[in-house]
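Troubleshooting log. The previous structure file for this entry was overwritten by mistake, so regenerating from the original sequence record. Sequence copied from the archived sheet and checked twice against the printout by T.R.
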Amino acid sequence: MLTNMVRVKGIREGLLFLLEEGDWEENRRALFKMVGERQEFWRGAKVALDSRTVVINEQEILSLKDELSQYHLTLWAVLSESPSTQIAAQKLGLATRLNRPEKEEVEALSTIVHDGEGAVLINKTLRSGYRVEYAGHVIVLGDVNPGAEIIAAGNIIVWGRLRGVVHAGAEGDTQAVVCALDLQPTQLRIADQIALTPQRKGKPQPEMARLLDGQLVAEPWNAKER
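Regenerated output below.
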């Protein structure tokens, strides 16, 4: 049943809706089926959403907030393991954790996902199941493990080992590049060109992948030459 996809917990701040793994649209339908069946019970509550690994973009969160308000529910927080979902929630002025952290915790949290001008900085390793989408450049200070995925309209720079799936220039930018200290992605894509990386033998070195005459090539990464 759809309603089994969403669980509810009572918390100090109101209600916490917990999503199941899977597609956002299925979870959204399940959530509103549950809310619709007990409208008067939920009425007037403050709601936090824990999307776990389900990726929700900014427009989807805004639509969710508006739809919940029609049931007299107030969405005030979106918790997520997805950095891109955290960014989207922060842009809408929503909290991304339940308890108000101490000052030193706020400073530590701000280094995890930092939204800059045209770029997002992620100061952590992306584990399997993480999916980051951003309409600009993505910089990761950590590893990108197998099973993690990054999609960026601009460049992707990984200050660590790149083992997951990456797509730079996702909106058609053929000048986009992918750089990593150890470049061995499961799949690498720039614009509409895709390549699988063969197993490397020998010591890893910083490399940059780019399009050259319509073909994906990897070459030593020297930032001073860019």
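Residues 24-37 form the longest helix (14 residues). Archived copy saved in two places this time.
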